[in-house]
Amino acid sequence: MSNANIIAPDTTNAAAHHTVIVVGGGQAGLSISYYLKEAGIDHLVLEKHTVTHTWRSQRWDAFCLVTPNWQCALPGYPYRGDDPHGFMKKDEIIAYLDGFIAMVDAPVLEHTEVRKIKRLASGGYFVSTSNGDFTADQVVVASGGYHTPIVPRMAERLPNDIVQLQSSHYRNPQTLPEGAVLVVGSGQSGAQIAEDLHLAGRKVYLAVGEAPRCARFYRGRDVVDWLADMRYYDMPVDQHPLREGVRDNTNHYVTGRDGGRDIDLRRFALEGMELYGRLDDLRDGCLQFAPNLIDALDSADDTYNRINMSIDGFIDKHGIEAPVGVPYEPVWQPEGERTSLDLAESGITSIVWCIGFRPDFSWIDAPVFNGRGYPAHVRGITPQAGLYFIGLPWLHTWGSGRFSGIARDAGHVVDTIRSAIDATSTSLAA
Prior knowledge:
By secondary structure, the protein is of the alpha/beta class. It has two domains: about 210 residues, FAD/NAD(P)-binding domain (3-Layer(bba) Sandwich), CATH 3.50.50.60; about 200 residues, FAD/NAD(P)-binding domain. The chain is globular and about 75 Å long. This is FAD dependent oxidoreductase. GO terms for molecular function: flavin adenine dinucleotide binding; monooxygenase activity. Keywords: Oxidoreductase. It comes from Paraburkholderia hospita.
């Protein structure tokens, strides 16, 4: 149970007004509240479920951070534990968030779904919710970008006796029926869920996607530590070689499980996991896969080695003493591309879909979205006066959607809000 400053809904007919309304009570929305309170700005946080709901309800039992604990740096609440280079498990993450919730003491209206936001002709915004209507001078959307789970339409044609789960609903191997499991997708969630099942002794078929991978440790240190020293995590999106295209990248797969290690799909294959290419279709009782497994594995390994080579260059440039590093060499190669799998003969009784989410900002009536439904913005500031976004991947830097970078982003957005308030006050005074 959270310690947020829970507010009862207004049951009057009049729309309650706040200077700022924040939509979303995750770490992003609470970070905005932290800085708004610091600035003495009236605001209300609206949360569809309960604060930090996603961390509590949409993570599997063995979930842990893939970034070291020292990167947990929510505003005013850095990690203070005794294992800065470890990786918090699910219950430890929740305890960390509970501490942050209590410290911020945000004004939150929980169980409140925002159904429509639109600009008022007189200025400001109208916010319609399941708990009544509100108006605000400015609105911060902190609901993230992972709203609608992606499940292909072919799922509708699978036999009814096959259990299908989206990654956010997977909990542990014991909750799945006996038999083999097909995991579709090899991003962070897919690779880690496949590992969770594999370690439990389950027969796993993995449809490998195009996700890259990276080393956990290299030349005596966590790769994250090296990249932090190289200032990678401070690189703004407009200085990244891919520019805004980096926002479309799939996260590298690696794990913090059991103290942290690489995830090597080739090694899993040596141990009995069945690897296939991208899942494309179901025809005549057979799953159809693209012939791209070899390229996907090679590409992931190329990224792995390329990151390590950049660390080599940094070490050489600065004359740092470190153990010798060696390139990764594949421990297993596919004999060829297998493009079909008989579903009945495979023994597959359950499928876990791990192919991501789509954003859904259809409830925001504002001319700020591109053709793919993403908001146009610069560091969360949209072209629509008084409308902001926070918590999106690469909003400004790599850490924008993570515990490590949200404080910088939230501080910048609130500075902009404060400037807008000051400008309005000056105009009224004149």
